[in-house]
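Hey team,

Filing this mostly as a record. A colleague (T.K.) asked me to run one chain through the structure pipeline before their review meeting, and I want the input and output archived in the tracker in case anyone asks later how it was produced. No errors, nothing strange. Just documentation.

Input sequence:
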Amino acid sequence: MKTTMKKYLSLLLALVLTCALLPLAAFAEGTAEEPEFAPDELIVGHPTITKGDFFTEMFGNDTADIDVRALIHGYNLVNWDQNQGVYVFDPSVVTDVQVVEDEVGNRTYYMALADDLYWCDGTPITAWDYAFSLLLLMAPEIEQIGGKIYRCEHILGYYEYMSGKEQALRGVQVLSDHQLAITLDHNFLPYFYETGLLLCAPYPISVIAPGCKVCTNEYAEVYIGNEDENVTEPVFTAELLKKTILDPETGYNSHPSLTCGPYVLTAYDGVTCHFELNPYFKGAWYHNSLPGNANGAHFETVSYKNSKGETVTYNLVIPTIEKIAFTLADYETLVEDFAEGRMHLVNKVVYADAIHDMLATRTQATDYPRIGLSFLTFTFEWPTVHDKEVRQAIAWCMDRDGLTEDYCQEYGFRVDGYYGIEQWEYKLVTGKIEYPINFVGDEIHEPDDWRKFRNVYVKTEEEYKQAVAAWDLLTIETLTEYKVDTDHANALLDEAGWTLNLSGETYNPDVDDVRCKMIDGELVALDLSMLYPEGNHIVDTIQERFIDNLNKCGIKLTLVPAPMEELFAAYYREADRTTDMIYLATNFHVIVDPSITYSTDTSANHQMWNNTYSDDEDLYWRAVNMRKTDPKDIYDYVAKWVAFQERYNEVLPTIPIYSNIYYDFNVPELQNYNIVGHVTWTQAILEAVWTPPQRANDAE
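Output structure:
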């Protein structure tokens, strides 16, 4: 920890105690007897409620939970560079990297880790913690307690380790307390976001797997063993993890007591999370963090020499907001909540009426495009919606333009594929950003002078024209728009054999309400149901925009409202599905790899990630083909992206509806909040400065 940082945070140490105990104490006491919000807390609202999955996405991936994770977990090996659209090593975590490729193409990243990384109780973070994270997230014991284990096929020796053929994981080595090596399997390469395969944050073995330790064999390859060598039975078991991770009162998933992010979670009541600054957090590195553009944010400049003798200089953002409360935002009371001090910042407002109401207040507003979309997903394996023609017919009955207008008004845009309007691939093929081609002439010859990794450089006008012509051919204008056409929908259903009524006789649209089809000797009716988030205004006009059109085609639809936690449990396959369809929305990771979402591998740890139950082999292999692209060949990647969109648009594992412009609103007392320059509010808040407003009860 740097001296300047110690001076800055010294006052907090007297208040925060050791954070390993503080969250546990707060949780144990319960939050009902405590005030809902402390007077000096920054209160942040989000339209989606937290579920309490604050560990990883293995047990759920609610947007609000993702935000909590970003605040409390930190020190990932790699970080997203918005300037170039690639993952890069975080210099505050990885101080040196050497890449070695063997004779068959396996690629080993030898990483030197910083020696000033600490858990929030002051204990050091080492290479052993990163190795434990990798071993834990792929552990079969996680799957045994209902989690989705990470598919680490990219790590050498993954299959042998998972099958038990090898005791240790060959592709991960701990060479010293601050030296880690990860080897990528040549069979998985190339991978367009290759450095992103090294994403890894540390998790504490002392809390999650007490009595266990990371062991190594003679080759420094890792596995989990017993801390006490005299204990013969394995301590690392599903029973242990069920207690340490999933216990509702103390489990790490909802009560993470030892973390290393900018904040520590001090209390959680099922709706509201309370955070305080982590006194041992050294600062956050972002590739675009420059003090000259900070407008008052606190930075620390760090310099050191790497193994090549090169001077590495970077800036760390030092967060200053001491306390944050993160809670559910209600669109109906948003203006009142801001006026009465119950909300200071609200993130990702979508509903147009709420946006209009907030724009009329004194709050500051920031708008930005969404990297995601709203969609209707199918329970693909059910006989009711398994036929491609049925899904297409349903799409031809949905007035997506009208639903988007009703809910988002001028802030929403219909989409026809698996993309959001802020995705760089979409912006390239629609001409919203320039093609990544640079005409450099003959004066530049050395690759070291070609600074932009993703860009293509040409030296002649003819090469430039050819490159532009190739990019011009990439388009998504050929995607089917699926505007309302009930005649076409009826023709598709006839073609697919949905020509019977409930009595098994010929369907007559003038008499019969529901189309049926004989499938495997059973009469199946298109009497469908759709799960949706209760209270969501999208259903206000869904009768007119959707259900009435379905009725014209012999399809019934029953709407089933559900709390978000129940909806997510069904979508993420954590609970049995009881409906044919689910309406929801998603925000993509910066790495979009649909080969995971649309995997047709039926092994358990693959299938659990396939939230649509899709079994379309063509769609899956187009997704695999997209990811297996040389990181330097951006044109090839985007061409494959277009091919994937074309197949998705045809088979419709989900019906895309809209992407939109988000709005964030904040009070003037929150300064330097620049959400546009970051991926999430949890990053932007680290650069922000908070001046608590004067409260009436303060004067008393």
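Quick notes for T.K.: The chain has four domains: 1-73+261-363+667-700, 86-241, 372-424+525-659, 431-472. The first strand starts at residue 42 and ends at 46.
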